[in-house]
Amino acid sequence: MATEKNKNTISPAVLDRLANGSACTPTALLNSENLTPEGLNPEEVEERRERYGSNDIARKKKDSVAKRLFASFINPFTIVLLVLAGISLVTDIILPSPGERNYLTVSMVLSMVLISGFMSFIQEYKSGKAAEKLASLVGNTATLIREGQRQDIPFRELVVGDRVLLSSGDMIPADIRLIETKDLFINQSALTGESEPIEKTPLADPNHAHAPLEATNLALMGSNVISGSATGIVLSVGKDTFFGCIAAKLTAKKEATSFDKGIKKISWTLILFIVMMAPLVFVINGLFKTGEDRWLNALLFALSVAVGLTPEMLPMIVSANLAKSAIAMSKQKVIIKNLSAIQNLGAMSVLCTDKTGTLTEDRIALEFHHNIMGKEDERVLRHAFLNSYYQTGLKNVMDLAIIAHGEADGLSAITSNYRKVDEIPFDFVRRRMSVVVADKSGKRQLITKGAVEEMLAVSSFAEYEGKVQPLTDDIKSFILKKAAEYNEQGFRVLALAHKNEDLGKTLTADDEKGMVLIGYLAFFDPPKASAKDALKQLQEYGVAVKILTGDNEAITRHVCAEVGLPTETILLGNEIAELNDDDLAKACETHAIFAKLSPAQKTRIVSLLRRQHTVGFMGDGINDAAAMKAADVGISVDTAVDIAKESSDIILTEKDLAVLENGIREGRKTYANTTKYIKLTTSSNFGNMLSILVASVFLPFLPMLPLQILVLNLIYDISCLALPFDNVDEDYLKKPRRWEAVSISRFMLCFGPISSLFDIATYLIMFFYFCPQAYGGAYGSLSASDQLAFATLFQAGWFVESQWSQTMVVHALRSEKIPFIKTNASWLVYLMSGLGIAISTCLALFLGFGYGKAALNWQYFLYLFGVVFTYIVLVSLIKKLYLHHFKELL
């Protein structure tokens, strides 16, 4: 069973196996595993495959299409919609007579269920495709020795203990302990993110026994051979390899995001209120009303109440919000793959990202060219320029940086004074490259650049303190110390040397000796000019940026210091490996920079941060895919590898934090306008239902017909379709917010009953003043026909007051500021609000909704203006108290 500190990386048993293999000598390893130079025989292969498993990357077992479709449709959110559809089916289709049946609501809600379910199904499908692409990267053959014979077999047939032969260009087929090497350099960028090749040797490496990525004698699956050759013994296969852990993370079901968890809680909250309110309304109306059909009418009324309690336009509002934001974000260089990610992007409070390309330009630049004493020297640049300009091999990024710097300094002209005579290309054994140039007089000069240690090995002299001196131990120490200083500042350093004598007619590596060391070349991936300001902007928006990189501490520290990130403490991968989850979770809160990380460690950090935050992860490599999937929102760029893009929710067309800032703003606008609808609608509907409960007890007739409730709800919801286009206060956008059901319940319980107070006031004024005034007496003194007309007028009056009040309260509660004075809705919200009020008023005045024309006079509308104004004033005062106590409104 995995210990707490390793459960998110690699199992202790596998880690111990790699550690033991790395720490012991090749001979000891072969003896402990009973291995011979002839390799395994068929019986041993089968026994080991049975014991350790096959070399298959973990793949999620494929469910049938029907099962995956079913799972995509079963969640609390769709349950709310299906309950609504069922209610609508009863009230709109089953119970009404054939001529009065209405299929619109059922059709609309079922359409939303289908859209939601199919979107979930498609996302799961894409996730599976990402894992399949990752697995396909290792679908190759390996060369090994079995029964003394050299064989090429598929990767998947390898077993622990196999003797594998590696050569230049090979992919590493499993996690291997190297027992023989010759000039072996391996690229581990897929696992570590570092592009520089790593030299590997067979020597025991107890110092890095529990840090397999740093062990010099381990070659891990997912890396590849750049140059040289080697023989190794397979230690781990398939899902037990580091690469296998990444694949396992991709095939695992994505943990519910902040938005997913929030919407589920909201859905269950809505279900709870429906389950509580609808039966209560049914029982009260059945008991307190009279007539033969009172229980049937009570049932119809209770079902209408259930419909009224449910914000049935929620999926449409959410979809409209997300679609509108997706279009707006695409114009801001942010492409949305998964629409729900917009909500998580807005709620994001922590952004984890690599530094390369995000904080830096993602290009190597020549920062300075110093002489041995550390002073700027044009002569050093001139020699370096000639060396890089005249080499005909593949020019690496450092050569291109030297040439670009030299051309900017006007050195292109000097090439007319020289011609190339010969060269020795770079290789990973010498770690140097040389050219011989001749000037117009025929004088030849050998110019060599390379790693500092290798250049010291071929130099006998140095231009020290202004003159050529023998390369003594003191001068060597001075040079190594100076190079170390540059490395600590985050620079990659090359040394430069030359000589004019003892050059053979044909240049060979033997000529690289007795040289004069003349200076250093320091390279750096420069910080982006926009990075510092972008980080400040993100901080203003409440987003903490944490750097998770595979690069070394020195380079990371220098870059982060340049862009203003605190660098006092940096947590390294080997330190993280020793921490349990609780200790690492605490460290994640106090540290902003993590270096020398493995992909599994990035994933672990993201998962722990999600305990307290909504987390985004921005990456572009295979090594980032698992962390992107573990985050609430995975962010990639259009230049990323396919697997990274497949694993992401959002793709940036430009890898820049400033671009991401625009996406965060849009995400928060989406959250704001969605939560406006949910909170305002549920609180308004809850208030209406409380009013209905009161009326059901005291009134001798229904306060509103079931049809009126449904039409009232429909008009209000249609007017709310403008909310995705509403304005959002700039102050609101500065803070990340998570979806919380408790805030919706609190809002509903606080502001809902306020509307009930004014509804009850309307009941009283209608029942005791307006209706008796219109029909010449109290309800009990009227004939049956006049009582019916009395009830119709009452219902029309409350219908209009309900529509006016719940429409206008949107403007009072859509912002924390004073409505109409310090904040205003968008023109579209104003237009739709006006249309909703106008349509409902016309319906009540000219149709009456039932048994006669509703005679609402000018006195009623005078009262209506007064009651709505008073309602808005009271809500604004309560809003102020609410903000004082709960700190935020929406």
Describe the model.
The protein folds into 5 domains: 154 residues, Calcium-transporting ATPase, cytoplasmic transduction domain A (Distorted Sandwich); 72 residues; 289 residues, Calcium-transporting ATPase, transmembrane domain, CATH 1.20.1110.10; 154 residues, HAD superfamily/HAD-like (Rossmann fold), CATH 3.40.50; 160 residues, Calcium-transporting ATPase, cytoplasmic domain N (3-Layer(aba) Sandwich), CATH 3.40.1110.10. The protein contains 29 helices and 23 strands. Strand 1 and strand 2 form a beta hairpin. The relative contact order is 0.09. An 8-stranded mixed β-sheet has the order 8-23-22-21-9-18-20-19, with helices on both faces. Strands 10, 11, 12, 13, 14, 15, 16 and 17 form an 8-stranded mixed β-sheet that branches. With 890 residues, it is α/β, with parallel strands linked by helices. The N terminus is likely disordered.
Q: What is the CATH C-level name of the largest domain?
A: Mainly Alpha
User: How much is the average pLDDT?
Assistant: 80
Low-confidence sequence ranges: 1-9, 134-139
Domains (count) = 5
Largest sheet: 8 strands, mixed
